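User: Structure please.
Assistant: Input sequence and predicted structure:
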Amino acid sequence: MNALLYIIGKSIKNSLLELRKNPGKIILYLIIISLLVMVITTSFTTRSIIDTPSPIFWFKGVLFLFISLSLVISIKNSLSSGDAIFEMNDVNLLFVSPVSSRKILLYGLVRMVKTAFLAGFFILFQSALLANFGFGYGGVLLTFAGYIISVIILTVCSLLIYTITNGNALRKKIVKFSAIALFVPLAVFLAIQYFKTFDIFLSLETAIKSPFLHFVPVAGWMAGAVTSFLSGELLNGIFFLGLNLILAAGCAMYILFTNPDYYEDVLVATETIFEKKRAISEGSINSSTLTDRKIKVTKTGIFGTGAVSIFGKHIRESFRESRFGFLTLSSGLIVISAVIASFFIRDLFTIMFILMWIQIIKIGTGRGLKETYTHYIYMIPESSFKKIIWSNMEVIAKTLTESILIFGITGIVINSVNPVFVFTIIITYTLFSFLLLGINYLFMRITKADISAGLLLMIYYLAVILIMAPGIVLAFLSSFLFTGNLSNYFMLFVLSVWELTAGVICFIFSKDILHNCDMQIVKTGK
């Protein structure tokens, strides 16, 4: 046990010593701490302003959906390679050492606290959300703690599922059907309530308050625990938290006493992630995303010459990845989620702004940004500006396709929306993705392409807000020049012009990223 404590202490010490060599990180940490202090300070005033807080059951429903998403992802990973709770240095040092396997598993769970902390760090900035329900920053910390515990429990459960189902197709099917069955009672109850009342809000309220929500392990139990503690119902909170802890302890004990040599099981996930990181660090972005899934090649070749050929290459890759081309599984989930949200949020402006926040996170997963880590784009004898624009045209086309579906269908659902207004919303949303791409390239240029650093995302979000702020102000002021629908049209027109202009400026200032003689690499440091 002393050896494990030594490794943890040494890792913390080395991380602190590393700050002496990276003053930029110290500045970033200070900025983030300052933002966090500002959020904590404003949470007290925000809470006092709200006279009629929203019912807490809505918060319970949101938290349930959020943890349920992590639950589904965890089960999906457990059926493939499992969740990684160790790194390759742990494999090389600990797995061959004379240390108890039980203690090593406990060490892996302690390491997961750091991963869960970074994954849920954004929750610490959600004081405004909880203020709507009448809770201060203590509620934020309680929600944050609940999420960390949920991630650790799901990791243990994922490891257990992998050890049981590894190499057994029948067991994997049983786990899949069991996972779906967990949500069936709640879904059936919600459907029954809706057909009784035809009131979606009342049906959701009844479903969230029903015991069927607590039939879902981890998600339902943790949502019940957090909301019970926030409401002052300590016994209920302790009961639901106890169920989670019993589940985690049971999974860990089963792994230890039935399969003490679990090293082979966790090694697959550890090696998979290590190989992906190594491929990325060497610039092999495509090899890091290869899977064993069979790809049906219907057509070959690309269209276009020069920089346009990059767009042709991305189109061919899109149709190989999905038979619907630009529309992938994530696209379908976003469209379906937006349509469902339109039944509750009867305003396209609000839906557009929510999707814009999702775009800020999602935009970095496009093929255009990844082209800078391969050698092909550097070999095309075209201007850097033209190559950057065409390499990201696939992302623009994908966003345009998604926005036509999203706002076209939601406009029909809301029913009182003018087609011209829907068109302007689509243009504004699509050009926002163009601006985000420009900001990403500019950010890569400034930070030397270190786009994998998690804490830099906070500065990236701040940069997006600062660049968008003048456009939002101009759009708001311009809306007073007209009345009625013309006011909305002109406001969106001004905002679109600003997004296009700012995006072009960002691309111009970042075009020199292709003038470096050394290819960019993705830094995969912790």
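Residues 302-514 form one domain.
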